[in-house]
Amino acid sequence: xxxxxxxxxxxxxxxxxxxxxxxxxxxxxxxxxxxxxxxxxxxxxxxxxxxxxxxxxxxxxxxxxxxxxxxxxxxxxxxxxxxxxxxxxxxxxxxxxxxxxxxxxxxxxxxxxxxxxxxxxxxxxxxxxxxxxxxxxxxxxxxxxxxxxxxxxxxxxxxxxxxxxxxxxxxxxxxxxxxxxxxxxxxxxxxxxxxxxxxxxxxxxxxxxxxxxxxxxxxxxxxxxxxxxxxxxxxxxxxxxxxxxxxxxxxxxxxxxxxxxxxxxxxxxxxxxxxxxxxxxxxxxxxxxxxxxxxxxxxxxxxxxxxxxxxxxxxxxxxxxxxxxxxxxxxxxxxxxxxxxxxxxxxxxxxxxxxxxxxxxxxxxxxxxxxxxxxxxxxxxxxxxxxxxxxxxxxxxxxxxxxxxxxxxxxxxxxxxxxxxxxxxxxxxxxxxxxxxxxxxxxxxxxxxxxxxxxxxxxxxxxxxxxxxxxxxxxxxx
Length: 478
Ligand code: NAD
Known about the structure:
Strand content: 15-25%
CATH topology of the largest domain: Aldehyde Dehydrogenase, Chain A, domain 1
CATH superfamily of the largest domain: Aldehyde Dehydrogenase, Chain A, domain 1
Distance between the termini: 67 Å
Helix content: 25-40%
Number of domains: 2
Largest sheet: 7 strands, mixed
Bound molecules: nicotinamide-adenine-dinucleotide
Radius of gyration: 23 Å
Number of helices: 15
Structural class: alpha/beta
Number of strands: 21
CATH class of the largest domain: Alpha Beta
């Protein structure tokens, strides 16, 4: 079945003459839906709607916001299997992972429904006699939400839910590859009782919708997740226009395995971190930095585990590694593997795979014998590709782990408490994982990176308010 998605502008579902096909990467003959190709006028209309709805929503009661987010969370949870199937179909994430992501969206909506009721301020005695000082938080206003395709329901939810919880109006621009889950999420939130104009959805090309959001003086803040190149330009443009901006971007996440690690556990952690979600996670383990005493055994065991992973259609329950998202991404993965081989890496796996349906299937790849300066260790591939870096000892491993412009997630496998403690303290990353994959986080605590991976306040958890609210400091004299 092919669904016609529509923009949501001021409570009206609208479309454009021309549409963009949303194709299933596991089976390109399957057109999942058709999304509008919005022009600048549509974006402006959405911004105007958000602007005029913002004041009313900012004045809504915590109970009203609670009820919307709570009801939306309940509907997402109730429809978890159906929405998981849609997500797997449009993005290519294996069905179990896709369904789990929908469950995560429900958890996020429930978490932020609770946050609506925890929005107290501070009352300080003044340093001046009789005076009182109140510190309170107010909504930022209109927030532009720009999201990538790789977590098509979780990321929009972890931006839109806190924006609404703290009283902001939203213009949401989803990724071109994954319009379907965005459509369902917005319908669910609208049905849950949002006043018209509080949440607006505008489909279209990033190069059209993005600049229109950035240009408008009526957009107060931009929350972006996506590639480093686009993210940097979004940050620069938003800052030049005086907007608040938050950007979560690429990663080149290291997983360190030292001699004292539990080998089987380390291999499982690496396989999960590198290849689950087809390696298309900003937190994927793409550099496996392994000390000399365990290196060869680790490579043998990981290669065996990797070759046993079934590559196939995302809706096949037996699939472990789904297709990559589109032809362009497939070519990018292959290009990085070619460069890795040219620069001296020993590429194992990483071949196009034929299945019953025509899709973008690539077997997982392990590049053995790489050094830290090789292109495959410097740039984000964003596919099922990991490289092996052999190091002498833990000190060298830590130095190599930190030798990157990125700083999203960093992991270590060790049985030594002292080594784990040292790594937690010295890894230059926003998130550090001990004996756990670099990908895989909780929803009630902050999320985000450092260095070239991130800009601005962290997302998720109660800390999300740092971005979605402004502080006000009020003095009252006696
Ligand atoms: P992308 O940068 O191509 O696109 C992200 C979004 O930006 C899309 O909605 C796109 O339409 C929009 N966009 C494109 N051009 C724009 C412009 N000029 N102005 C404004 N918006 C524009 O990224 P992608 O391919 O969708 O996603 C993959 C990338 O996202 C990877 O680099 C991955 O690491 C990153 N990512 C990061 C995190 C994180 O939290 N750090 C999470 C998931 C994905």
